[in-house]
Amino acid sequence: MRSADLIKEVEKKGWVLVRINGSHHHFKHSERNDLLTIPHPKQEIKVGLLRKIQKQVGL
């Protein structure tokens, strides 16, 4: 999955971009206390990282 597609899915779930640090986008959710980091721009996100992000977001 491309990082741009993943970011769109994450934003649909209520995560909001709070800052960009280099090539990493950091998102927060209003109901959760954790921070989600997605490398961007990246053509393909590796399977392990993708699964971890999907689990954290609830996809």
Automatic annotation (TrEMBL):
The keyword Nuclease applies. Keywords: Endonuclease, Hydrolase, Nuclease, RNA-binding, Stress response, Toxin-antitoxin system. It comes from the Bacteria. It holds the Pfam family HicA_toxin. InterPro entries: HicA_mRNA_interferase, HicA_sf. The keyword Thylakoid does not apply. GO terms for molecular function: endonuclease activity; hydrolase activity; mRNA binding. Belongs to the HicA mRNA interferase family. This is Type II toxin-antitoxin system HicA family toxin.
